[in-house]
Amino acid sequence: MFRRSFNRFCAGEEKRVGTRTVFVGNHPVSETEAYIAQKFCDNRIISSKYTLWNFLPKNLFEQFRRIANFYFLIIFLIQVTVDTPTSPITSGLPLFFVITVTAIKQGYEDWLRHRADNEVNKSTVYIIENAKRVKKESEKIKTHYAVRDTIELRTVESIDNLRAAIECEQPQSDLYKFVGRINIYSNSLEAVARSLGPENLLLKGATLKNTKKIYGVAVYTGMETKMALNYQGKSQKRSAVEKSINAFLIVYLFILLTKAAICTTLKYVWQSTPYNDEPWYNQKTQKERETWKVLKMFTDFLSFMVLFNFIIPVSMYVTVEMQKFLGSFFISWDNDFYDEEINEGALVNTSDLNEELGQVDYVFTDKTGTLTENSMEFIECCIDGHKYKGVAQETDGLSQTDGPLPYLDRADKNREELFLRALCLCHTVEVKPNDTVDGVTESSELTYMSSSPDEIALVKGAKKYGFTFVGVQNGYMRVENQRKEIEEYELLHTLNFDSVRRRMSVIVKTQSGDILLFCKGADSAVFPRVQNHEIDLIKVHVEHNAMEGYRTLCIAFKEIAPDDYERVNRQLIEAKMALQDREEKMEKVFDEIETDMHLIGATAVEDKLQDQAAETIEALHAAGLKVWVLTGDKMETAKSTCYACRLFQTNTELLELTTKTIEESERKEDRLHELLTEYRKKLLREFPKSTRSLKKAWTEHQEYGLIIDGSTLSLILNSSQDSGSNNYKSIFLQICMKCTAVLCCRMAPLQKAQIVRMVKNLKGSPITLSIGDGANDVSMILESHVGIGIKGKEGRQASRNSDYAVPKFKHLKKLLLAHGHLYYVRIAHLVQYFFYKNLCFILPQFLYQFFCGFSQQPLYDAAYLTMYNICFTSLPILAYSLLEQHINIDTLTSDPRLYMKISGNAMLQLGPFLYWTFLAAFEGTVFFFGTYFLFQTTSLDENGKVYGNWTFGTIIFTILVFTVTLKLALDTRFWTWINHLVIWGSLAFYVFFSFFWGGIIWPFLKQQRMYFIFAQMLSSVSIWLTIILLIFVSLSPEMLRIVLRSVRRRSTRNPNLELPMLLSYKHIDSGYR
Fold first, then answer.
1. How confident is residue 240, by pLDDT bands cut at 50, 70 and 90?
2. Neighbouring residues of 595: CB distance < 8 A, sequence distance ≥ 6
3. What is the reported pLDDT for 685?
4. Same-domain pairing of 624 and 770
5. Residues comprising the binding site for Mg(2+)?
6. Which of 554, 589, 608 is at the close of a domain?
7. Membrane-spanning residues where (predicted)?
8. Quick check: is 143 in a domain?
9. HEC string for 673-715
């Protein structure tokens, strides 16, 4: 019923879909119509994944989706249901340990989310109830609306008596879009309608700056707020190491199945002899004789799988998770990332991608606020072709009576004043006056605030020359001129800036009644809308300033006749009141208004490079990374910045694919195809196809850089199919791959994401990293493999949506070259080591089957099977993966070329994997046959006592534990007290446990097969010598490698370039081995 009433006041509006109606204060707007209270969600923010009730089932479901966990669950169920050679505890206890530790970690992380949610949900707010301010918790707020155009309602009573209704769009995630309107009802039946846009919407989490309090009503609450909807939009990213782990698991699962199949086959070959099948001391039962042979073979196959199942390292997942979680703190704790200006350091939003920082191939960076400070300074201006530059006193103006200024000649005084008034009026700057200011006599104390630093710079630039923007009062913009007089202009309309129009305008009414439109924007957006004869004089200065690296804006105006304004005003109000397609309708009206303008002049604003931005880009280039700059700025400005930050060198040959080069021909697509073909031929001649790395070729040949703008990119991506050149994209990518640097200018946010996605899908799937500081960078940050946000001056949208956040661009150097390098080396060594030590563990068990008639007899005791991965070998590798520094951090940072040695997932390729696998096979073989030859002697003691199979297995297990632990000690370069504690402590714990486990008769065990085994074993000198000898033989390849590396180090000039695992690093022909 309210909808019908509402439509009476908004005649002509069609039926709307996807909108909501909100009543202010839950009061009906009409006493004659029925009021039905609407239900909206409460104001609770929920970023957590679990609750107390669903934690257990949901977490278990997620953990058993992992192939290793699910595999061990199946093995455990087989051990429970089938008669297997090992106890179910041997698989169940490690699985329980892994599941428990992972659940504790994930539960702790979720508890932190709950705590953060409660800080927001339990925060104190005041609501209006029955004309009183009532204190409540934030989560208990219902949906209301913040009323506009009711400035006079400043008391609780007046707010409580307000009768109004709002119709707005349903919740959606776009932070910069809001469409709605409000109808305010008075005592009469006539309603006052006002449009509502993004400027009227205060986002959740915003901070009040120029007022102590506001009265407002929430249109969206809880999980329907824009911030909450943006949090839910993130996709899960997986690192290259995780993909390698899954590939290795498949290989080892195949090895496991092969071992089980071989043993099952050979068992029945062995039993084909009647004596072997049924010896006199082990006669079969009648049930065993009647069992179906195929079923018996399948059961034996499962039993062998259970016997060899420890080749799959179930505990590796929990160790990797702990390594990532704990290792991420090193980034947060790094004092080099601390910025005193914002009093913050680095932030890790996800720890799953730490090692990916060491594998980056492409870096995509924004320009403004990322490479530059985003701290604008007004440098100069141009009025009617006359240049004005220099620092003037506040009392100085542009008139002759105000003293000399450093310019050659001057424009007409009226044009000068018109230009400065345009700077003071065409903006969205707000003024925060000092409390001590009385009137406008102390205008120098004014503080300007704006979402864009450019606008503040322009307002301050006008102030330098005598025109001061004082603020807005009752809808009037107030300007103090050179004569200290206050001029008031009624602000009629603001045509806001957007990335498509690339300009903004205001319509104001002077005190004399004239209606003026002032417009400022990019030259490409303003020049087509002004008189042609006015462009040439200004264009020269704009291009010159752009070449100097300054940000340029053009200023234009036009006078609007009263009759024309009435029509324009009606169109603007109609467009602003629309709930459907508002943006398109407003854009059409704006386009019609901003025509036939007169160009006044242009401004030049300097955005200085960030500290060490050039050095950082040089280091990234030296590390073999390709750096692309994606910016919305014009080509000349961006090009100058790229030279300043050394993205382009003086000897870099630039290839341009821009509107300027394409428009030389009538047929743009033909000209584009001609340029693409020409550039490809040139680069193919310079870089012929070969097996050598392009990274080396860059240092030997001419360097090339590519410049492309947004319109040309659109032409490449959307080329017509009938043009005969629909392979534009393929040719373009070939050119990009052979260029050391690429500049993409005039880019829309969506185009930035398209560029990143295009490179991600290249052959070889290169790892991409995006870094930016603004909301327009969020799309490319989310699209890339690794997203890094700068805690800049354009808000925190980028840092909130990123994987990592740093205060400055210079911090990217250490983040990648040091932290990324170390993270990757550590976790790659961890993964290879886990598969290595488990193959060492299981191979003797496999070989043992050849000597026990394939009877599925275990070689190791159940306690050893259970605790091998949990207790005996877990802590040393965890400490190594957290603390190891095979190369000093300062060396990694100072010599970026070391980064190339690990690129392309070098340590987890087939070569290093086979090296570790063959090393494990060699050591496992030495363990078994070395001990087997020892047992060729019937008695190992002087008393003639004969040792049995459990002593045989315990000797092998002892050699195994000491060998794999000492192997890690040999690999360790950076020793700390923690490394000493866990390495030697683990060995001591194994010895203590073995004495303890074999020194007591345990009542819960049916068989005391390990009783006094370990103590008796160590009483033999032969066994002592065998253990020491076999450990030495097993580690001999590693010790030989260390000796050779030491000799090589003495002969090389730069020992810092030596890396720990020679066979685990990529070989490149750049002088580094």
1. confident
2. 529
3. 73
4. yes
5. 366, 368, 773, 777
6. 608
7. 64-82, 247-270, 301-320, 913-935, 947-969, 981-1005, 1011-1035
8. no
9. HHHHHHHHHHHHHHCCCCCCCHHHHHHHCCCEEEEEEHHHHHH
Do residues 643 and 569 share a domain?
no
Is the domain of 971 the same as that of 826?
A: yes
Total domains, the chain: 3
Question: Cα 318 to chain center, whole Å?
Answer: 23
The verdict on 589 and 622 lying in the same domain is no
Domain residues for the domain of 487 are 376-390+411-434+444-608
**942-984 tens-digit pLDDT:** 666 667 788 888 999 999 999 999 999 999 999 999 999 999 9
CA nearest neighbour of 862 among 793, 938, 954: 954
Give the pLDDT confidence score for residue 495 in this predicted structure: 87
Residue 723 pLDDT > 60: no
Q: Give the C-alpha separation, 381 to 419, whole Å.
A: 10
**CATH number (domain holding residue 538):** 3.40.1110.10
Q: Sorting pLDDT into bands at 50, 70 and 90, what band is 393? A: very low
- Among residues 806, 839, 860, which one ends one of the domains? 806
Q: Pairing between strand 447-449 and 468-473?
A: unpaired
Distance of CA 602 to the CA centre of its chain: 38
Q: Are 953 and 1060 spatial neighbours (Cβ–Cβ below 8 Å)? A: no
Read off the tokens for 614: 């050039």
Rounded CA-CA distance 870/592 in Å is 73
Mean predicted confidence (pLDDT) in 334-362: 86
Helix, coil or strand: residue 122: coil
Domain-located, residue 558: yes
The verdict on 862 and 1002 lying in the same domain is yes
Same domain, yes or no: 802 and 929: no
**Known binding residues for ATP:** 366-368, 455, 497, 520, 551, 631-633, 746, 752, 776-777
Output the six-digit token pair for 1021. Answer: 């000198």
Strand segments, DSSP code E, in 34-157 are 124-129, 132-137
Binding residues: 366-368, 455, 497, 520, 551, 631-633, 746, 752, 773, 776-777
User: Do 597 and 642 fall within a single domain?
Assistant: no
Q: Is the model more confident about 522 or about 191? A: 522
Q: Residue 736 sits in a domain of what CATH number?
A: 3.40.50.1000
Task: Taking residues 409-428, report their average pLDDT.
Answer: 88
Among 300, 334, 366, 709, the active-site one is: 366
Q: Tell whether 781 and 824 lie within a shared domain.
A: no
Distance CA 511, CA 918 (A): 89
Within-domain flag for 851: yes
Report angle CA 238, 241, 242 to the nearest 5 degrees: 50
Q: Which residue has the tokens 């999980």?
A: 223
In whole angstroms, give the CA distance from residue 471 to residue 491.
Answer: 12
pLDDT of residue 966: 95
Residue 559 is assigned to a structural domain of this protein: yes
Q: Is the pLDDT of residue 386 over 70?
A: yes
pLDDT recorded at residue 320: 87
Residue type, 803: D
Higher pLDDT, 791 or 928: 928
**Average pLDDT for the chain:** 79
Indicate the pLDDT class of residue 418, thresholds 50, 70 and 90. Answer: very high
- Local confidence band at 1030 (pLDDT 50, 70, 90 cut-offs): very high
Following CA atoms 104, 106, 107, 109 in sequence, which dihedral angle do they give, to the nearest 10 degrees? Answer: 120
Q: Give the model's pLDDT for residue 17.
A: 47
CA distance 419 to 920: 78
Q: Is 536 a catalytic residue?
A: no
The amino acid at residue 337 is F
Helix 728-737 and helix 749-760: axis angle, to 10°?
80
Instruction: Give yes or no for residue 510 having a pLDDT over 60.
Output: yes
- Record the pTM: 0.75
